[in-house]
Amino acid sequence: MQTHVLGFPRFGVNRELKKALEGYWIGAIPAQELIATCELLKKRHWQVQKDAGLSLVATGDFSLYDHMLDTTALLGAVPERFEQSASGIDLDLYFKMARGDAKNNVAAMEMTKWFNTNYHYIVPEFTPSLRLSLSSKTIIEDTKKAIELGYKPKPALVGPITYLSLAKDLDGANRWERLEEITAIYATVLSELGSLCEWIQIDEPILCADMSPEAQAGFAATYAALNKAAGKAKLLLTTYFERLDENLNLALASGCAGLHLDLVRGKDALEGVLERLPQTMTLSVGLVDGRNIWKTDLAQALETLRMVASRIGLDRLMVGSACSLLHAPVDLAYEKKLAPELKSWMAFAVQKCREITVLGDVLTGKGCAAELKENAIAMTSRRASPKTKREDVRKRSAGVTPQMLQRKSAYPVRKQAQAWLDLPLFPTTTIGSFPQTSEIRNARQQFRKGEMTAETYEDFLKNEIRKTIKIQEDLGLDVLVHGEAERNDMVEYFGQQLDGFCFTENGWVQSYGSRCVKPPVIYGDVARRIPMTVGWITYAQSLTKKPMKGMLTGPVTILCWSFVRDDMHRSEVCKQIGLAIRDEVVDLEKSGIRIIQIDEAALSEGMPIRQADAAAYLRWAVDAFRLTSSGVEDKTQIHSHMCYSEFNKIIRSIAEMDADVISIEASRSKMELLEAFQQFDYPNEIGPGVYDIHSPRVPSESEILRLLQNALLHITKERLWVNPDCGLKTRAWPETLASLTNMVAATQTLRKLHGAC
Ligand code: GLN
Ligand code: ZN
């Protein structure tokens, strides 16, 4: 019986890859040094898997930037706007596709979320004239290297059906017409790999999603060709992130020697698979969560394994991670500051490899009794620990009534009650943060290291707030913000002040390219100790007569950007966070704050993979927002901010959030999102972002005016707000001042045009 992981994190425990990549991009290190770092990391990670006792090691899972981009390189699917040299796809071309070519003004390929994870991949582009040819043999070379070094590799590729499903058509192309051509390139690669190894992993997570008719139609023939090409090597068709459901037939009839299931996220589908698994097919059961930091309950996993073994026999069984470990941090051993009890409940990638081996060994009677016992102790400790349970929190959460999800009056009544805010037509505001200068970051660093006293740091931040308010008053903005200088991150800032959260030192996971995030860990019931933002916001309000907007992160966003406990449904955790933030909202109101913004930047990130599951998610997510925002009087104005433009699908749910005002990203899509309003009239007020904060470019007054006039074709003038797309923390002051000056000027012109000045 074989044991394996679907992939290992790429970055290295000290984020060596990030440093090498960024060093190479700024020209600080030569290409050879970057390559050397990659080689070192690959070998180290193979050794980790071998040391853990896994029978196979993953190859082809490493990437300089992204595995979808690697597949683009393999197929030579380089968009025509990038100049290709005779030598094929070199490092520079590869990075230009990912990051654009500023010198020649060539835009990067688009990037988007990998299923419902926080990992982002580079979207393949198909035009009618795109030429394809095998252009990268990295996976073959790596697999050979692994063999030379004495490992038993299992190369992993993104399957052609998933690749094409996640690509986009441009200039009238139909990418599915290229499937046969692509399959032929895969076949060449598989026949080479097939002579090198026993198993080849081919990832088709699209089988766990709503597959397009083209994808479904092309599947069987593609896999017939691929299985033939692989020769005596066996293809392991890997599926993950969900259950197969309606696509199970395709997988079972694929002719592949093995099928991998994610039993962390699709456990209840196991029986249905066992009933129909062809006699010749091996089943790889993914029992170790690749997307979280918790230890696997080995006793429970063994129960499942034993059941499967009794049905299909040990010979046809493999044990693995549920999905790639790409989404988990590297090594728990480097965590020195975590409370020992909490640490004893956790497993990062290195530890997860060992869990898989232990499962395999126990099942085949090779012992591991001590580790099994240790795991059982950790599980019991976690279940029984008072750290994870707070009776008061549970009672309060159970006592949430429908009235608590409801503002006192409907929006039209609230609108009148909010007249006291005395806002002009087309009120101007910003999304919350102002530039996080190096001065601010240095002060925070010094304070953290104990080199600056709490008093000095507080004075420093107050001074920042004073400066920010003066600037906003001079600009003539209508609703002001304090600038968020005290926050380095919109989730971490709240997590650090809430019960039930803890933080790792090195728990980094790749978000995209060289970017990593270090999500907080929610291990216990969430509760607020004391007000978290009231001091800063009331200080800011004391400096101005204009309304100060209190700034909070919403429960869904805090949930989506954390590692969440796996012993409670996400909706329940979200509700607890909602109650904690609700208290903050009420306290802000009590302290005289008249406008409160609750950011739900991640609402769409939490969306399930399948459309059929969307409604249930949106129901509890919207309810959590309503719970957070409904404790205030009618005269208090609630705002929310969301940073995405693919808005059409969820516009009804956004309306159900019932915020008085929402601000959303819109300028990059030239206000296309407003077309959503053609079918559905957004009932409350809305500020479609009028300029893109992701770029230093300063929008002109006339450009902003045009966007606003376009918006007015869809939104009545009483409902339109004026604001940038998102927070300004990544921008520098000069472009911020210039852009906001133009934004205010455009608004004044618009007011004149409407006779309101
Ligand atoms: N209030 C936050 C800010 O301005 C919102 C950030 C976000 O939407 N990602 O920074
Ligand atoms: Zn945003």
Mean pLDDT across residues: 96
User: Would you tell me which CATH topology of the largest domain applies?
Assistant: TIM Barrel
The major beta sheet can be summarized as: 8 strands, parallel
The main sheet orders its strands as 1-12-11-10-9-8-6-2
From the N-terminal CA to the C-terminal CA, the straight-line distance is 78 Å
| Proportion in helices | 40-55%
Rg, nearest Å: 27 Å
CATH architecture of the largest domain: Alpha-Beta Barrel
Tally of alpha and pi helices: 27
How much of the sequence is in beta strands?
Answer: 5-15%
CATH class of the largest domain: Alpha Beta
Task: Give me some keywords for this one.
single chain; about 750 residues; alpha/beta; TIM Barrel; 27 helices; globular; binds glutamine
Describe the structure.
The strands form six sheets. This protein has an eight-stranded parallel β-sheet. Strands 17-19-20-21-22 form a five-stranded parallel β-sheet. Strands 13-16-18 form a three-stranded mixed β-sheet. 49% of the residues are buried. The chain is globular, with a radius of gyration of 27 Å. It has two domains: 2-386, Alpha-Beta Barrel (TIM Barrel); 420-753, TIM Barrel (Alpha-Beta Barrel), CATH 3.20.20. By secondary structure, it is an alpha/beta fold. A hairpin with a 2-residue loop joins strand 14 and strand 15 (515-517). Helix 11 (298-312) packs across helix 13, helix 17 (438-448) runs antiparallel to helix 18 and helix 22 (570-590) packs parallel to helix 23 (614-629). The longest helix has 22 residues, at 454-475. 41% of the residues lie in helices and 13% in strands.
